[in-house]
Amino acid sequence: MDEITEIYNKLGGIISEDDFRKKVEEKVEQMSGLCDVKTAAMLVAHDLGVTDTAKEVIKIKDINPEIGNVNFVAKVVSVFDVREFNRNDGTIGKVGNLMVADDTGSIRLTLWDERADLIKNGNIEVGDCMEISGYAKDGYSGTEVNIGRYGVINTTDQNIEIRLDSQKISEIRDGMGDINVSGKLLDISDVRTFQKKDGSQGRVGNILIGDETGKIRVTLWDEKVDSTKEMKLDDTIEIINGYARTNNFSQQVEIQIGNHGVLRKTDAEVEYKESFTPIADIIPGESYSIEGSVSGLGELREFDRDDGTTNMVSNIYVSDDTGRIRIALWGDHALLVDELDIDTPIQIIDAYSKAGFNDEIELSAGNRTRITIM
DNA sequence: CCCCCCCC
């Protein structure tokens, strides 16, 4: 790329490259040969309102409101919807946001008007690498970079490594947005379909992830459920731009991944260690993992549910140093009863406790439960 | 926006 094109690219297409080159030639003549072509191009850019074409390219971690104009390269990690609003002068304004990252961190971009159209028209997608020139200011959640009429946001062929500031699972609270988190993949649910309010068909699925601080259920909507196709248990995965909501049924906080979220495999190392509850400490109404050995085996039974479908259940007992508990194994888990022997070491992970038959506490091992025979 | 902890 020659020097003129390089400077032209920082103009964000406000005039055509041919017109820009003509203006540069005029400028060289005007200056009676006192400046070189590059300087002339910078002067023309300045005349057009772009004042920072000579500025150094900096890293995201160094961007702060005191710097003002910044040039940097970054990869798009989230794209948000464009909103329109009415200006006091009666015109309609447009504003859109992107989250971008480089190898030092991530930052939010605010694109105005015709720059926001780049988002609206689908010209900017997650994963694109961009050259960015804009104005750093204190925004609504820390420093952000504004890109208006004289700002620049162009795709570049450079491949940019990214590092995202990520949360730990134990820090995730109801209502949080922009959640980036990594974890080990502990479980993948079946995909369910459902009817949306508008009559169209929706798809929903769940995964469970864990890190060294805990585990959390993740809900994936519509096409996001497909991101799990390439994944297998124990992979490390990362979530970019999820949001957290309390599940109405379980009252547990979950991460949701909708239109603007990303779920993908990563090479990062994440530690996860299951924590097991002593059987004596189990109280009703919670999810537990226990570790012990089989101390009783019941019969496999089929039964009809109220809705007419049939299901299977079997009961086993598990003991540890602190006590003994009955486990109801539902669905496919029920078949395990035929493979188990007394004293087989076993782990029951994420089973739900309740007061069962004779008001004794028991665990239900349903489709969210994993069972490991050691 | 969905699953919904079921048996004897």
From TrEMBL:
CDD domains registered for this protein in UniProt: SoSSB_OBF
Alphabetical UniProt keywords: DNA-binding
Transmembrane residue ranges: none
InterPro entries, A to Z: NA-bd_OB-fold, SOSS-B
Name assigned to this protein: Replication factor A
Coiled coil stretches, renumbered: none
Organism (species): Methanococcoides cohabitans
